[in-house]
Design a protein that fits this description.
five-stranded parallel sheet; alpha/beta; four-stranded parallel sheet
Length: 288
């Protein structure tokens, strides 16, 4: 049976705890935000009863639980005494940064909603001081972007068994039927030679060898593919570094039946040769 690995994510309001929990979720952890600390021993016992199905857990605990400050440290010690691995991660930021973040979000401080944010920040720092002293790691997020925080946490907490590969999807479409909205990258190939105007090719789909040969024999198609392959060879590792789960690349031509299909088919082969798993979907291939 796998040993339960428990990470407690806490710290100052506005320091990035919600973003941290999302990073843990992407790293394969079972995540719960704002679990009452008193339920921790019962919760870890329930996880243990699942036969190892839940091995890595991240729990967000913050100031919304008004009474947790005096009890949480003792509760964590009880959980450790039961033989569980407990890691306390504490996030903080400089006062002026926290005030700015609350101002940008137009939210009052949860501890002192009717007073200036700075008063709430300082009051909270006093209440979490003991918790901070017991932290296994303290991260100051003042100068970190969301992506940098995610990368920092992933490097330390990513579990090999939970590692996920970027899912890459190629989608072909016809502009005459509208541009798809749920995409990340879009490339227009309407400048290529159009098989639609070749009588013996007009009725054939773009994945037919005859149409494919016609489209790919265009020198402009060769140049386009060379540039696209180079661009994606650079971009995909950047998306992976940011722990993106999905990447959808749309290729469009007029009707979505010939040029886009041929180009996307070749692009799928090129990306597969680089070691990527790529799905290919033709949205408008069978539309008239």
């Amino acid at each position: 049976m796998a040993r339960l690995n428990l990470v407690i994510v806490s710290g100052l309001s506005g320091s990035g705890k919600s973003h941290a929990l999302k990073a843990f979720e992407d790293a394969g952890y079972f995540c719960i935000d704002n679990l009452p600390p008193a339920l921790l021993p019962t919760f870890v016992d329930l996880c243990n009863q699942q036969g190892g199905e839940i091995a890595n857990v991240a729990l967000g605990v913050d100031v919304r639980e008004r009474m947790f400050f005096s009890d949480l440290v003792g509760i964590l010690e009880r959980v450790k005494a039961l033989g569980y691995s407990v890691f306390l991660l504490f996030l903080e930021a400089r006062e002026e940064v926290l005030v700015r973040r609350f101002s940008e979000s137009r939210r009052p401080h949860p501890l002192l909603p009717l007073q200036p944010v700075l008063e709430g920040v300082r009051f909270e720092k006093e209440r979490v001081a003991e918790l901070r002293r017991h932290a296994d790691r303290i991260i100051d997020t003042s100068d970190l972007t969301v992506h940098e925080l995610r990368e920092l946490l992933t490097k330390q907490f990513q579990r090999e068994s939970a590692a996920r590969k970027l899912t890459i999807s190629l989608l072909t479409f016809g502009y005459k039927f509208g541009v798809p909205y749920d995409i990340d990258l879009l490339f227009d190939v309407r400048f290529l030679k159009n098989p639609f105007f070749v009588p013996e090719l007009k009725a054939l789909p773009g994945d037919d060898p005859r149409v494919r040969t016609y489209v790919l024999s265009d020198p402009d198609a060769s140049t386009l593919l060379r540039h696209l392959e180079g661009l994606l060879k650079f971009l995909i590792p950047q998306f992976e570094r940011e722990q993106r789960s999905y990447l959808t690349i749309a290729i469009g031509c007029t009707g979505g039946r010939h040029r886009s299909v041929a180009i996307a088919g070749r692009l799928q082969e090129s990306l597969a040769a680089l070691g990527y798993d790529v799905t290919l979907q033709h949205r408008d291939l069978h539309k008239s």
